[in-house]
Amino acid sequence: MIATSSELSIMVRRCLLTCKPFRIFVVGIGFFSLCFLMTSLGGQFSAKRPGDSPFTIRAEVLGGQESRGVLRKISDMLEVIMKRMDALSKLGNTSDAHRLDELSSALDRIQPVGLVERIQAIAQNMSDMAVRVEQILQRSMAGNKVRDGAFGQCEIPKDPRYPDCPSKMDWMRARWTSDPCYAYYGVDGSDCSFLIYLSEVEWFCPPLPWRNQTATPTLRPPPKKQAVFQSDIGTLLEQVGTGKESLSFMKRRIRRLAAQWASAARRLDDKLRSHWREQKRILVHVGFLTEESGDVFSPKVLKGGPLGEMVQWADILTALHVLGHNLKISVSLKELHGFLGVPPGRGSCPLTGPLPFDLIYTDYHGLQQMKQHMGLSLRKHKCHIRVIDTFGTEPAYNHEEYATLHGYRTNWGYWNLHGQQYMTMFPHTPDNSFMGFVAEELNETERLSIQRNKVHNMALVYGKEASMWKGKEKFLAILHRYMEIHGTVYYETQRPPEVPTFVKNHGLLPQQELQQLLRKAKLFIGFGFPYEGPAPLEAIANGCIFLQPKFNPPHSSLNHEFFRGKPTSRKVSSQHPYAEQYIGRPHVITIDFNNSEEFDATIREIMRINVKPFLPYEYTCEGMLERVHAYIQNQDFCSPEAPFPPVNSSRTWPGSPPSPFMLLPNSRILTWASNASSFSFWPPLSALRLLASLEGQSCVKACQSAGLICEPALYRFINIKEAFSALDFQCEGVESEMNHLFPAFSAEHAECGLQQDPLLYSCAGSSPRYQRLCPCRDYRKGQVALCRDCL
């Protein structure tokens, strides 16, 4: 018999932990060839006797004492080899690899015919291997002496600028085998390789003086190129790819709207007067469509599933392409790895080179995937990321430490991004950037045709899934008294029982057929779900009146399951707050559906009025191109912000005491004084309007009440004690702390609080204890995302 299976596994693990990859390969082949040959000769594994070496071999094979003696000789040879390999593992020289390769060839020459002859041949070859390993060991030790004299002993540098170097070295010693990416970067278990990695691949240790610092020169960014509007969508369609129904849906949408995008690009180009625009290298990684995230959307495209996300992503891709940027699209982890340069392994190591993109658009799924596969590079490059986020992420939820300490931690927040790196479908969260989507525009002929051909007693229900119709019988019965009701509920074989028999159900319709139905219907009625989808805007654009339920109390993460766990405290007052707030009557009517009398009266009112097709400018192709262009050319979250106010700048401020603010005529609103210090900033300071909220009022509401928009980018200019004085707040004390409501004034204690962490500048949030200082701004007509001077 030979050594037990547990003893063999100990030997293999020992070799794996101590040998360099090429040594593991050579010795592994020899060892497993030996095991295979001996077991094929009739050996069996047995328990180990007390006192035996891990590699002691006990033979009960044909051949008697002679074979036992030879096997014992093999055992001795294995012991010698392992001792030599232990010593070799501590050396850094790889120049003798070819000599070990010669050793492996000895195994190929084992061709004995008889049992004893085979065993003797094995023993002789193992003896030869031991001799050659001894020779390599001697040469390697001599070479190391030379290197040690030149480089020292690779001791851990003591540099106060790199305080984490010692702890990172300890971590590498214990865990460097936990991810193959370390070996990919040359880590071999020696302290020298750890230091090289930690100083040249990561940045926890100082540069090593004995290393050639020109080996990894700093790469200059590529030269800037001009972006040119492009109308040909052929290359975009090729990049979107195939193989998923979701991708096919997006491509159909891109084709259908191509002419409108091209026309919008010409108009925007004229508006910008062919202004020079920098072409950006952009990666779009649609994380929710990757197989690794589950891709629950693609199978439901043809079964009434949600399409809003795919509508938005299709429009984002088209906008970036038409604006003339260098675009790459990823819908799989394999594509993401290739585009970013992710090293092989489990994601613990940085990227193999500089980030090859200026901007990365993704979603929360993609963000999580990048965290798993980019290692430390995500922290280094996260300022380039833009997260498409339907419902918004408020700063209190985004700040990891603050969210954890104050109960704002959810499954989706805590990424420590700048608030405006999150981009929403509707402009409901000023702390984020409004990305949006587009609805199809009508030409004048189509508008007139729709107005002539409207069926004034036809209603279409917003609800593709049968479950949405449950419990709606009461007000549907009232509606049925006045109008013919149509539905587009998905079904496979039988009519869904949730849909009343008096409803004409068309089943799930392709987009063009749905458009034709919307052009006939006078009323588009919502059931309260889904929230904030694109369909109501498409209906309004086709001349429908949108009737929706009012929520009392408003839905939020505090009282509604759908919003629970989402990184926002927003209170949703209706199914579609944007339509309610920014469009309103007569196109949008919001009522209490539980009040039968009000519902009946509203239907009779709708029968009497006529409306024209209407589409807000910000949801046209031109409006989206204008907005995305402004973001790309002006938003910069990578460059460090200069401190404000600069040293001695207050000496140039007018007034006594000096202040950079002045009152607008006949108003309590302050603006930036034209003769105060000028700063190059976007949005420009000319747009700033400073006011104080009421106690218990958020800055979102305070700015809205003044006909303005809260602008978090301008917080840094009002987070100064002079802002309190300008608003006539008498501060007995001024404190600075991390609080998402600051800057704010506490009347109870006459205390003024300044914001300590810029990541917590937040338009959202209120408290009855505080009056908040709010940086509001004006906005362009039909484009709330941009101020009047923002283009």
From TrEMBL:
<feature type="transmembrane region" description="Helical">
    <location>
        <begin position="21"/>
        <end position="41"/>
    </location>
</feature>
<keyword id="KW-0325">Glycoprotein</keyword>
<keyword id="KW-1133">Transmembrane helix</keyword>
<dbReference type="InterPro" id="IPR026116">
    <property type="entry name" value="GT18_cat"/>
</dbReference>
<feature type="domain" description="Glycosyltransferase family 18 catalytic">
    <location>
        <begin position="181"/>
        <end position="776"/>
    </location>
</feature>
<keyword id="KW-0333">Golgi apparatus</keyword>
<keyword id="KW-0328">Glycosyltransferase</keyword>
<dbReference type="GO" id="GO:0030144">
    <property type="term" value="F:alpha-1,6-mannosylglycoprotein 6-beta-N-acetylglucosaminyltransferase activity"/>
</dbReference>
<keyword id="KW-0472">Membrane</keyword>
<comment type="similarity">
    <text>Belongs to the glycosyltransferase 18 family.</text>
</comment>
<dbReference type="GO" id="GO:0000139">
    <property type="term" value="C:Golgi membrane"/>
</dbReference>
<protein>
    <recommendedName>
        <fullName>alpha-1,6-mannosyl-glycoprotein 6-beta-N-acetylglucosaminyltransferase</fullName>
        <ecNumber>2.4.1.155</ecNumber>
    </recommendedName>
</protein>
<keyword id="KW-0735">Signal-anchor</keyword>
<dbReference type="GO" id="GO:0006487">
    <property type="term" value="P:protein N-linked glycosylation"/>
</dbReference>
<comment type="pathway">
    <text>Protein modification; protein glycosylation.</text>
</comment>
<keyword id="KW-0808">Transferase</keyword>
<dbReference type="Pfam" id="PF15024">
    <property type="entry name" value="Glyco_transf_18"/>
</dbReference>
<dbReference type="InterPro" id="IPR052105">
    <property type="entry name" value="MGAT5_Glycosyltransferase"/>
</dbReference>
<keyword id="KW-0812">Transmembrane</keyword>
